[in-house]
Design brief:
AB_hydrolase_fold, O-acyltransferase activity, four-stranded parallel beta sheet, transmembrane, three-stranded antiparallel beta sheet, transferase, LACT/PDAT_acylTrfase, elongated, alpha/beta
Length: 334
């Protein structure tokens, strides 16, 4: 009887086992690489221009608020102290020098601001101007120009036919010395002169800001606001309250022309004038100190601006550069 032999189980070859192990390792490496790539994408997001802008705006805001905080926290005398350490003792202001020389207030002073330097405030407006009652539309921070530009333009514009306010809108000049002491924060107009006069004894009862609505024609300031009449009354009151000492008038820019109109108006007979008589100015005005008055009119001012006399003025150089650029664009020159 043939003997039955048991077959030995066939063992897998070493090569096939190695292949399976290599395939498993490759799959693991592939999956690990996928996870790494996903992790890299999550950890390193793409950087865009918007991100740069946001970071820049944030940096500027943080820096600004930090400097503003430090400015408000530090003592008020610190900037002056640092300036004196660097440049030496500060010289006395003109007002302090005059006070040391023994000068005191005598003649009342009237300021007449120029075009655009006097503030304008809202007394009545449309629905878009809610919350702006007696807030400045012109002068100050000019915040409403950015917040409500169309509403601002609507309220600052005049009626084309009457030359006065449109129906439902009343914009009036600011009263008092604050009307034109600063045009905008950090940009003074009359503030320094007022401060120097205060050193020798002047105060609000001996100084008067003849503010007017510079958008209107000279005669319309009297028709609508009686500005010329109020200037006349204030000068008469100040002269009488100061023992008969005549007033010194200091007009600036277009205020020079406005006060020339006032002097003609105050002596002219009614109803075109105030009927003050031909000697009213001689009785009430000591002197007129004009500052930058456009006596030759706008055409002469423009001609002077673009002449050789103004070649060293920075604004004139900029205007000339813009003019040359526009001419070159039209002529096709490079």
């Amino acid at each position: 009887m043939a003997s039955i032999r048991r077959r030995k189980p066939i063992e897998p070859s070493n090569t096939s086992v190695q292949k399976e192990e290599e395939e498993d390792e490759e799959e693991e490496d592939h999956s690990e690489n996928k996870h790494r790539r996903k992790g890299d994408k999550k950890s390193k997001p793409k950087w865009s221009c918007v991100d740069n802008c946001c970071w820049m705006v944030g940096y500027i805001c943080v820096t600004w608020w930090t400097l503003l905080f430090l400015y408000n926290v530090m003592p008020a005398s610190l900037p002056l102290y640092v300036t004196e350490v660097i440049t030496g003792p500060m010289p006395d202001s003109p007002g302090v020098k005059l006070r040391k020389e023994g000068l005191k207030a005598k003649h009342p002073v009237v300021f007449v601001p120029g075009i655009v330097t006097a503030g304008l405030e809202l007394w009545e407006g449309h629905q878009c101007a809610d919350g702006l009652f007696r807030k400045r539309l012109w002068g100050g921070t000019f915040g409403e120009v950015y917040k409500r530009p169309l509403c601002w333009v609507e309220h600052m514009s005049l009626d084309n036919e009457t030359g006065l306010d449109p129906p439902g809108i009343r914009v009036r000049p600011v009263c008092g010395l604050v009307a034109a002491d600063y045009f905008a924060p950090g940009y003074f107009v009359w503030a320094v002169l007022i401060a120097n006069l205060a050193h020798i004894g002047y105060e609000e009862k001996t100084m008067y800001m003849a503010s007017y609505d510079w958008r209107l024609s000279f005669q319309n300031t009297e028709v609508r606001d009686q500005t010329l009449s109020r200037i006349k009354s204030n000068i008469e009151l100040m002269v009488e309250a100061n023992g008969g000492n005549k007033a010194v008038i200091i007009p600036h820019s277009m205020g020079v022309l406005y006060f020339l109109h006032f002097m003609k108006w105050v002596e002219a007979p009614a109803p075109m004038g105030a009927g003050g008589g031909p000697d009213w100015c001689a009785k009430h005005i000591k002197a007129v100190v004009n500052i930058g008055g456009p006596f030759l009119g706008v055409p002469k001012a423009v001609a002077g601006l673009f002449s050789a006399e103004a070649r060293d003025i920075a604004v004139a150089r900029l205007l000339m550069a813009c003019l040359k650029m526009s001419v070159n664009l039209h002529t096709g020159k490079s």
